[in-house]
Amino acid sequence: MESSAAVRARGLGKQFAPGVGVEGIELEIEPGTIFGFIGPSGSGKTTTIRLLTGVTAPDTGEVTVMGKSPAAFSREDRARIGYMPQLSVLYDQLAIWQNMTFAASIFGMPRGRRRRRIVEELEAVELTEATHRKLGKASGGMQRRVALAATLVHDPELLFLDEPTAGIDPLLRRKIWDRLESLRDQGRTIFVTTQYVGEAAHCDRVGVLAEGRLVAVDTPDGLRKLAYGGEVLDVVFTAPIGADRRDQLVAACQAIRIENVGTTGVRLIVVDAGEASPAVVDWATAADLTIQSIEPYLPPFDDVFVEIVTRVASDEQPEPVGVAG
Question: Considering only CA atoms, which of 139, 180, 154 is closest in space to residue 33?
Fold first, then answer.
């Protein structure tokens, strides 16, 4: 049966030198989703995005985008895709408006629609007042915003964005993600790499790349469970509990493990925080202990990322987990 995936890769690999490149990439990205791609610097994120767009030919494996090999794309196929590379391909000596016009003209957009789309995209990245500024005189963050607007100007169905928020302040990053989520809600498919691991929370699914291998693909919540072995529940008592009580608590809620948090708190790794919470309360009541607070804990994605990559580093042959299908 033919896959309905917007992007599909099987055994995709490219080696530039021993240990430099990517190998065995397995991906299926469903239409109308945001797929985030995170990994350490030099892990192969840009190489992967270049393989998926057809900019670089693979040594091994195969890739299809919208049902076709990128090598077989027609001009019409290319027009359905927007690609924002990590390094700018725009012209420093041209004004921002001129760069946008050039980007739009590549796709043969009629003049009236071209002007409307340029205005819309420059408004979206808050550059309406800077249209006559030469790109080379703009800040690095402003240049990234122009590059994103130029990528979107022809209204593509599928977006490949390599570090779109790099060098941009947190407030504007949030606005850009609002824009990407809006495009997703309109049915667009977005593949995005990011150096800000916390941005994984905005994605529907996330791939973690380490040492050129895709080691995990899951939802943001799924990656948290993968990193910690389950869900996380923080419990703070009004007084410290001893080692014997800790053991009893672990047994009562069937915790996978327990850690101290401060002097009177514990962090429980459990299969299901919602089911474990009543068991903790019942145990504390029976043990005549007072709970000050009990609530699920969502580890920040920086910590999740470190946990996963550290686990991979200690495993000689990590297997991809939760590959989208």
Answer: 180
